[in-house]
C-alpha cells in the first residue's frame, strides 16, 4: 500500500535521513510536501526526484529561486510560514516534523488537527507546548510517534507494557564534545569545537546543544510531556559509547534497554513503519567486538542545563517555552561568537530567574498565543542578558 508522506525540515539532518529511507522504497510512498530553509538546490532536487506535490521554503524572499529550480517539474513552489501551515494541512498519512527550533510547532499542530500521524523529531514542540500538542492529538485522534532516539527507545520498551508499572526512565547522553575537558577550559571552547560530536552526525545546533547538555535538558522535559511521568522518575545517564539510547525500569526491578548504533535512521524507520517493523539499513551491533559499555553520572558543574531543566519541570506552565526560547537566543549568540560557551547556561538561568516573578509563567493556559508571547518575551529578556554579558 502506498502511503502519503510529508517531510518538514526535509533539507536537514533528520529530513535527509528520512528521505534516504523513502528513496529505498520508491513504490511505498507518495510524497505530498517537502519543506526546507535556505538550501533551495537540495529542496528542489529532492522534490523533483520524489515527485512531491509541493516544495516550501521558509524564506519568502527565496520563492523566485525555488520557482526557477522547479520549473517544468510539475512540483508547486511556495514560501513562508503560511505556506508551511498550508502544506501541513494537505492530506497525508504520515508527517515528519524535523524543523529545528520553536518554528516546528505551528506546522506540527496543524498536522495534528487533521488527524495525521506525526513523527516528532522536533522536540522543541513538546518542550514549549507539550500539553497543547498532546491535547490536540487526543482531540483529533492523531498519533504522535517520538523520533528522538532516546524517546523512540523508551516507546519501543513500553510496547505491551502499562505506564503505571514504570518506576523510572533513564535517557543516556554521550556527554558531547567536552565530556572530558578540564572544567576551567570550557569558557574558551569555540563554536567549531562544540559542533563536533563524538558519536552522532547531526545538525549544528543540536550538536552544540549536546556539548552544553541543553539537548538532554530538552529531552528530560520531552520525556515528562510525552510519557506523562513525574520529573523524579526521569534520570540522565552519561554513556560515552551512545549504544544504549534509553532504559525503562519497571516496578519488579526489570530494566529494558534499547540498543542500536548511533544512526537516526533507526528511530526514523521505527516511526515510518510503526506499528509494524520494516527493514532499516543500519549497522548491526557486534557486542562481542564492542566488549564493554561504560556509564557515569552526569556532572552538575559541567552541565548546569540539567539543573535548569529540573527547575523548568517544577515550574511547569509556560516555563518550557521560556527555557527553549532563551536557549535558542543564547545559542545564536554563541554561534556568532558574542558570548562564551559557559555563558549560554548563565543567560538561560538569568532569563528564567527574571521571568519567575511573572505569575503567567506557571499558571497561564498553554495555547498557541500564550506560548508565542512567552517565547517572544523570553527572547527579549535573553537579548538583554546577552548584552549585559558581552
Ligand atoms: P538541521 O539544522 O540539520 O535541519 C533543520 C531543518 O529545519 C532544515 O530543513 C532547515 O531548513 C529547517 N528550518 C530551520 N529553521 C527553520 C524555520 N525557522 N522555519 C522552517 N524551517 C526551518 O536540524 P536536525 O539536526 O535535522 O534537527 C531537526 C530536529 O530534529 C530538531 O528539533 C532536533 O532537535 C531534532 N533531532 C535531531 C536529531 C539528529 O540526529 N539530527 C536527533 C534527535 C532529534
Ligand atoms: Mg536525542
TrEMBL record:
Name this protein carries in UniProt: 1-deoxy-D-xylulose 5-phosphate reductoisomerase
Stored PANTHER family: 1-DEOXY-D-XYLULOSE 5-PHOSPHATE REDUCTOISOMERASE, 1-DEOXY-D-XYLULOSE 5-PHOSPHATE REDUCTOISOMERASE, CHLOROPLASTIC
Keywords: Isoprene biosynthesis, Magnesium, Manganese, Metal-binding, NADP, Oxidoreductase
Membership in a protein family: Belongs to the DXR family.
Coiled coil: none
InterPro entries, per the entry: DXP_reductoisomerase, DXP_reductoisomerase_C, DXP_reductoisomerase_N, DXPR_C, DXPR_C_sf, NAD(P)-bd_dom_sf
Span of domain 1-deoxy-D-xylulose 5-phosphate reductoisomerase N-terminal: 5-130
Residue positions binding NADPH: 11-14, 37, 39, 122, 124, 203
A Gene Ontology molecular function term of the record: 1-deoxy-D-xylulose-5-phosphate reductoisomerase activity
Organism of provenance: Psychromarinibacter halotolerans
Domain DXP reductoisomerase C-terminal: 259-379
Pfam families, per database record: DXP_redisom_C, DXP_reductoisom, DXPR_C
This protein's pathway: Isoprenoid biosynthesis; isopentenyl diphosphate biosynthesis via DXP pathway; isopentenyl diphosphate from 1-deoxy-D-xylulose 5-phosphate: step 1/6
Domain of life where this protein originates: Bacteria
